[in-house]
Design a protein that fits this description.
- It contains twelve helices and 15 strands.
- It is an alpha/beta fold.
- It is globular, with a radius of gyration of 22 Å.
- The two termini are 15 Å apart.
Length: 398
């Protein structure tokens, strides 16, 4: 209980843009003044927070403002997309201090990619003056499925050759640091919680658009991870029963109608893109060319993207209806080229598919964190594990 209360206070201070006094913390959280005083004393001793001047112009003693110490802790975040690898160093306030991005050759063996991650982490630390003792560890966000007990990546459809690769243990051995592995969509949702501040809602769906499409689900301020830590797979929600056949045997799954690779292949089939025009079949380059063609008035390109946006809204409506959320956040490394068109089409389409549309609206927005949302989320995962107010902290050991 003490650890949980400490994490609640730390989280409240972190979410406050101007800091909070001890009196405000008592009113906000409901703990006794003595409990708040004891906890903040510990947080000050651990250099997680600092005293940042006085507040109050009226009668009575001025109150001391407490704020997060950004250099109190750090974390490294790694996003492993089938096309790109992003490695970054982040402070306790979520500010990215250093960042490296590199392409991943499609035929690179898992061992080579793990060595590359370790090399980028080493280079990142060499560039910074951060005390290694203040780094919580490395959070890694690959595509799922993930075997959480072993930290292994288990046959993700777009990472060839990754059959039960022990990513967590291998990277920990290569770097000598604690490593936490979670799905990229879960990491993205965690980033949105940490980066949303007071403006974030308690319950939302994060729709992640990378090489594939997935979702992160947040209810009551906590990410829903599921029994095995693999919640959020939406690739086999059927959005068009007349669509192309999926590997699962059904037709029109979102995995073959809405993911960027499918959009590029459709554009090639309809002659919007010449297959030889984009580099080595690069999905990011092909998607950018497709969106540029639509912006320039190519009717077929517009039709492809608008149809994908409506199909995506149908899939999102399944989640919105089942979970009754009031916010949908889009993001991921391939989201930006699609953003303006999707934000024009999805909200109205979603309204038509939602069961509770007459009761409350659903806000549809882009993440404010940017393309690095999964890497930022991976770093947040390390901080959340040790510092976040997660319900599991209330579980008593047997």
């Amino acid at each position: 209980m003490g650890d949980f209360n400490q994490s609640v206070i730390l989280d409240a201070i972190r979410r406050s843009s101007d800091g909070l006094s001890r009196v405000e913390l008592v009113d906000l959280i409901g703990l006794s003044p003595q409990a708040v005083s004891n906890i903040t004393r510990r947080l000050l001793a651990e250099e997680l927070i600092v005293e940042a001047g006085k507040s109050g112009s009226g009668p009575g003693k001025p109150r001391t403002i407490l704020r997060i110490n950004p250099s109190g802790r750090y974390a490294i975040g790694v996003h492993l997309d089938p096309a790109l690898m992003t490695v970054l160093l982040m402070d306790l306030m979520g500010v990215v201090l250093h960042r490296k991005v590199r392409e991943i050759p499609q035929r690179t063996e898992p061992g080579g990619i793990i060595d590359a991650i370790a090399g980028e982490v080493s280079a990142l630390l060499a560039e910074s003056s951060v005390d290694p003792a203040r780094i919580e560890g490395i959070g890694v966000a690959p595509p799922g499925p993930i075997d959480q007990p072993t930290g292994a990546v288990v046959d993700p459809p777009l990472l060839l050759g990754w059959h039960r690769v022990p990513l967590r243990d291998a990277l920990a051995e290569a770097t000598g640091m604690p490593v936490l592995v979670e799905k990229d969509v879960i990491a993205a949702a965690v980033a949105e919680i940490w980066g949303g501040g007071r403006e974030s809602t308690e319950s939302f769906v994060f729709v992640y658009i990378g090489t594939g499409i997935g979702s992160g689900i947040v209810m009551g301020g906590e990410v829903i991870r599921g029994t095995s830590g693999n919640a959020g797979e939406i690739g086999h929600i059927v959005t068009d029963c007349n669509g192309p056949e999926c590997a699962c045997g059904m037709r029109g799954c979102i995995a073959v109608t809405c993911d960027p690779q499918s959009l590029v292949l459709e554009a090639e089939r309809l002659g919007v893109l010449n297959e030889e025009r984009h580099r080595n079949g690069d999905v990011a380059d092909g998607l950018l060319q497709l969106c540029t063609a639509a912006d320039q008035g190519n009717d077929l390109a517009v039709e492809i993207l608008n149809r994908a946006a409506v199909r995506t809204a149908r899939a999102v409506s399944v989640l919105a209806n089942a979970l009754d959320v009031d916010r949908v956040v889009f993001g991921g490394p391939f989201w930006e080229p699609l953003a303006s068109r999707y934000l024009e089409v999805v909200p109205s389409s979603l309204l038509g598919f939602r069961a509770a549309r007459s009761i409350h609206p659903v806000e549809v927005v882009s993440t404010g964190i940017g393309d690095d949302v999964a890497a930022v989320g991976a770093a947040c995962l390390m901080l959340e594990r040790t510092l976040g107010p997660r319900a599991e902290r209330l579980m008593l050991a047997r």
